[in-house]
Design a protein that fits this description.
- With about 260 residues, this protein is an alpha/beta fold.
- It is globular and about 60 Å long.
- It binds octanoyl-coenzyme A.
């Protein structure tokens, strides 16, 4: 495979792609080169048919401490606006159709919190610290934080976090539903994410893709259109081989052997 400078890429379990952000000296600050590598690795997993789900993590100390402040310090409005600064950073939410689990330990601040929230499932450990501290730098969240955090934890809590720059603890993240699970240790968090990814990768990839697609539609559509959208996709799955395989295996009390067709 490719060699990267700022990330580590592997396939530790059947069907599971694993990416670890690896700029330890800068607490995984999200520089443009790092984001380009991350997008490249995700695109490779997206186009590898044997990969069914992906886990993204950082180090025990930091998932990511935000966009690279040193890189941004001298940016001007024209340069940022002209080059659509940050736009490509959230590409992954559109091109990545396979489930992404973010395993968050340590700091997930600013762009780090936003990247964590681009995951389809968020897991964290007790060491996790979330926050959108941009207000302290004279700016605001720039990669979806104001939208995704508000959808995840509600307006009042998101306003408080974004307007004060105060951190959100792992316990709050769990209680408020920002994350699906809070683990005791970073190791348990990453292992839990890998286990869930392996489980997801073991199902029909056609059904998994459809499931992610319809859940994501709930973020954009009203309930009525969303339910109609779901039904269209549900009906469509009766045209797949795996629907026949799955339902006949159930009737015969056998294990389904998915074809991803
Ligand atoms: N950018 C660049 N370098 C960073 C960043 C960062 N965001 N965070 C930490 N570092 C560097 C430090 O400068 C330091 O480097 P050096 O050793 O060369 O001085 C090293 O990492 C270690 O950091 P600290 O010494 O500060 O470690 P502490 O344990 O004392 O503190 C903190 C850890 C609390 C995380 C602290 O480093 C901190 O507050 N970091 C900044 C957090 C922040 O403000 N993040 C938001 C950035 S703005 C942003 O993300 C805008 C979003 C835009 C969209 C992004 C799309 C994905």
């Amino acid at each position: 495979g490719k060699t990267y400078e700022h990330i580590l890429v592997s396939t530790p379990k059947p069907g599971v792609g694993f990416i670890q952000l690896n700029r330890p000296k800068a607490l995984n600050a999200l520089s443009t080169p790092l984001i380009l590598e991350l997008n490249s690795a995700l695109r490779d997993f997206q186009s590898t048919s044997t990969i069914g789900a992906i886990v993204l993590t950082g180090s025990d100390r930091a998932f990511a401490a935000g966009a690279d402040i040193k890189e941004m310090a001298d940016l001007t409005f024209s340069a940022a606006y002209g080059a659509d600064f940050i736009e490509t950073w959230s590409d992954l939410v559109t091109f990545l159709k396979k489930p992404l689990i973010t395993a968050i330990n340590g700091y997930a601040l600013g762009g780090g919190c936003e990247l964590a929230m681009m995951g389809d499932i968020l897991y964290c450990s007790n060491s996790a610290v979330f926050g959108q501290p941009e207000i302290k730098l004279g700016v605001i969240p720039g990669a979806g934080g104001s939208q995704r955090l508000t959808k995840a934890i509600g307006k009042s809590r998101a306003m408080e976090a974004i307007l004060t720059g105060n951190n959100i603890s792992a316990k709050q993240a769990g209680d408020w539903g920002l994350v699906a699970k809070v683990f005791e240790t970073p190791e348990e968090c990453v292992n839990g994410a890998l286990k869930t990814a392996e489980k997801i990768a073991g199902f029909s990839q056609i059904a998994v893709k459809a499931a992610k697609e319809v859940v994501n539609k709930s973020q954009d559509l009203g309930i009525r259109e969303g339910v109609e959208y779901e039904r269209r996709v549900f009906h469509g799955l009766f045209g797949s081989k795996d629907q026949k395989i799955g339902m006949s295996a159930f009737a015969k009390k056998e294990k389904a052997e998915w074809t991803n067709e």
